[in-house]
Amino acid sequence: MLEVTGLGAGYGRVQVLWEADLSVGDNEIVALVGPNGAGKTTMLRAVSGIVPVRSGAVTFDGAALAGKSIEQIVALGIAHVPEGRRLFSGLTVRDNLRLGGWVGDNRDSNRDIDRVVELFPALGERIKQVTGNMSGGEQQMCAIARGLMSQPKLIMIDELSLGLAPVIVDEILDRLPGIAESGTAVLLVEQDVDAALTIASRAYVLETGRVVLSGESEALLNDERVQQSYLGVG
Q1: CA-to-CA distance for 113 and 75, rounded, in angstroms?
Q2: DSSP string of 144-159?
Q3: How many angstroms separate the CA atoms of 206 and 157, rounded?
Q4: Which residues of the chain have pLDDT under 50?
Q5: Do the strands 210-216 and 202-207 form a parallel or antiparallel pair, or are they unpaired?
Q6: What pTM, to 2 d.p., does this model score?
Q7: Can you state the percent helix, strand and coil of the chain, rounding each to 5?
Q8: 215: which strand partners?
Q9: Which of 74, 96, 120, 209 sits 20 to 30 Å CA-CA off 224?
């Protein structure tokens, strides 16, 4: 579904990604891990059209994404949950969700809200609350639910656990397999490498803008380099 080949991207004169490859299949959870500054966020931004592709190719369901607007990429079926959630803090949960479902014609926003609230029941209890007054965990749930409102084929989640208590992180991670099984593949950027590799079927390790390791998550969990660099083992 998503194919990234030889991707080069960056900001101004600064090159961040170098010949990076990555793929996500239907109904799959794929993790992208690595240290701060490795280029993980830039990878997601290049896919969603926020950062231009300098070299290589990004295709989604066979369509080239380079040069397309953010709106066109969203319409193709890609949702991006950015680092820090980026909710409209002065709006209620319901209004944030409705904005997430703006793509497409003749959509039943109430039906879609019911669907995502079933996935995250805490949002149902806060549906009329201004999101700026909610906890970090509730905001993250709302951000993911907002991304799901457009019924995307792929949702990209950047730094899911940032600033959240472990119990909340586990609660949100537990929802990802159900999201994937329902028809929305997941590309997850996560600092907690152990959690990311446990929930994902495959993963990529990004360092200084290059993919240095990739493969089945179980194999990477047992890889000596991953254990020493990211899991504190050995």
Answers
A1: 19
A2: HHHHHTT--SEEEEE-
A3: 16
A4: 106
A5: antiparallel
A6: 0.91
A7: 40, 30, 35
A8: 203
A9: 209
